[in-house]
Design goal:
CATH topology of the largest domain: Neutral Protease, domain 2
CATH class of the largest domain: Mainly Alpha
Strand content: 15-25%
Shape: globular
Strand order of the largest sheet: 5-4-8-2-1-12-15-14
Number of domains: 3
Low-confidence stretches: 1-16, 497-505
Distance between the termini: 63 Å
CATH architecture of the largest domain: Orthogonal Bundle
Number of helices: 15
Bound molecules: zinc ion
Number of strands: 25
Helix content: 25-40%
Oligomer: single chain
Length: 505
């Protein structure tokens, strides 16, 4: 009887979810107001009241956001224009007393984030930016609801997003809330460029001032990065990918530098005068690692509270390792630059005492307690995760006589977890790693991830033909002298320039 009740209530929730649909009209026509006025129309609501919430966090950045602080001026009316009562029912929730299944909730979203927007919204004289989780409420229990977004823009402004276009200009459609908020929207006066690699269309949208030379250089870098990432993963899981670039001034570089990953787009806050390749490679590789190859809790998402996994080191650190490999394999960096970059990271870790107190798994699990989305207890999972990815790759190459590598692990994980397939269990990476290695790798893996033991540099690197030389606080990573034939083969294949010139296509 108990089982029956549970099954019945699940069925009712699914039924209700399937009926709900939402439509957001975003009024951005008054840039001087520095806010968006959003009309959220809900169709298919059930019962006499409906609760709507704003996310507690933004996928890709593991801290609690305070998006509710940017929302104001709530009102609601039914399909006949009659006012309905709206009450705040929780820190991030509002309840509308709807008498019918269709109603409209209207509210303002502050659009004052600096640096052209990133985690929140921005509206300025010539551009605007909408990061979905900070702007779009969801119907509680209705995350599967499809939605439509319609934009009201100043004259001559355009919009671009990774979301599928709707039927009218400046409108978009999403199959569910996850997709809606995974697709940031850029609006304004901007230039869009595109290039095609193996049938995949890459677009580059830049906001901010840029010389033609800088624009051409960034585009060239994006072409190299995109092509090499696709080569590593054997194609792309999207037909179109959008780079949204906010070109900030050098003075703002330290404050606003960063990127945020999405399924088929990314937003990069970057400054002129620097190479954008490293940041772009990191965010693009996330389209595989964390957007598709992901822990179970990272899609579908629970936006109401923090979600914990011990695998953020893999999501972030291993993505960063691939960003470095992409630069090296595309020829944008030399092997020497690649090795000295790894050595700098090793120096950072070895000079950090937190490595003997905090495991990589705990650094991931407890990141929410720090308010800084890079680790816990002083151990940065980008840093140690990157080095661990490097050691896992080298170990696998040595064990298999260079027939297997971490690339094979990534491809296997992609096969297993590409949505709509579910994300991996907490031990999913170890399972795939052992499978590719052809042996149980638990002892090696647990030492790297779940212990505070020193990393086994010499044991892993020497058979591969690399040596780590320490002098004081500095570290140097270099090819060993007198490599034997097998060691030479390892190294050449690993960081080689894969001849990824985009114009070779
Ligand atoms: Zn990242």
């Amino acid at each position: 009887m108990k089982t029956f009740v549970v099954v019945l209530s699940v069925a009712l929730v699914l039924f209700a979810d399937a009926q709900v649909r939402t439509e957001y009209t975003v009024d951005a026509s008054q840039p001087a107001s520095r806010r968006f006025r959003i009309e959220m129309r809900v169709y298919g609501a059930e019962g006499e009241s409906t609760t709507l919430s704003i996310p507690a966090w933004c996928p890709g950045w593991y801290i609690i956001q305070r998006y509710e602080q940017g929302l104001s001026n709530f009102s609601a009316n039914d399909a006949n224009g009659e006012a309905l009562s709206v009450t705040q029912s929780g820190l991030r929730s509002w309840r509308v007393a709807n008498k019918s299944e269709t109603f409209t909730l209207t509210y303002d979203v502050a659009a004052r984030e600096l640096g052209y927007g990133f985690f929140k919204c921005y509206l300025g004289p010539a551009s605007g930016f909408i990061n979905g989780p900070s702007a779009f409420l969801y119907v509680d229990g209705g995350l599967n609801a499809p939605s439509e977004v319609k934009l009201r823009l100043p004259q001559d402004w355009a919009s671009v997003s990774g979301m599928a276009p709707g039927e009218t200009p400046n409108s978009y459609r999403a199959v569910n809330y996850d997709e809606l908020v995974d697709c940031p929207i850029e609006i304004g006066l901007f230039r869009l460029e595109s290039f095609i690699i193996d049938g995949v269309r890459f677009e580059m949208c830049v906001t901010g001032s840029l010389t033609p030379e800088q624009r051409a250089e960034w585009r060239r870098e994006l072409e190299f990065v995109s092509k090499t990432a696709m080569q590593i993963m054997g194609g792309a899981p999207f037909r179109r990918y959008l780079y949204i670039i906010h070109a900030i001034g050098p003075a703002d570089f330290a404050n606003f530098y960063g990127g945020l990953e999405h399924m088929n787009s990314t937003v990069l806050n970057f400054s002129v005068g620097h190479s954008i390749a490293g940041l772009a490679a990191h965010e693009l590789f996330h389209a595989w690692n964390v957007k598709r190859i992901r822990p179970k809790v990272l899609g579908p998402f629970d936006y109401s509270k923090e979600v914990r996994t011990e695998n953020l080191w893999f999501a972030e650190g291993v993505t960063e390792y691939y960003a470095r490999l992409i630069l090296s394999r595309s020829g944008l960096e030399t092997e020497e630059q690649f090795l000295s970059g790894l050595a700098a990271d090793i120096a950072e870790l070895q000079n950090n005492r937190a490595r003997s107190r905090v495991t990589l798994a705990d650094s991931s699990l407890k990141v929410w307690e720090t308010g800084d989305s890079s680790g816990f207890g002083g151990l940065n999972y980008y840093n140690k995760g990157m080095i661990v990815g490097f050691l896992m790759d080298v170990k696998l190459r040595t064990l298999s006589d260079n027939k297997k590598s971490l690339d094979d692990v990534m491809k296997l994980l992609m096969q297993r977890h590409n949505p709509p397939k579910p994300g991996y269990d907490e031990d999913g990476i170890l399972k795939a790693y052992s499978e590719i290695a052809g042996q149980d790798m638990a002892s090696f893996y647990n030492k790297l991830i779940r212990s505070t033991d020193e990393l086994p540099y010499d044991e892993v690197l020497k058979p591969f033909g690399l040596e780590l030389v320490r002098s004081g606080r500095a570290y140097q990573l270099k090819r060993m002298a007198d490599l034997n034939e097998r060691q030479s083969l390892h190294i050449v294949d690993w960081a080689k320039n894969a001849n990824a010139r985009p114009d070779d296509r």
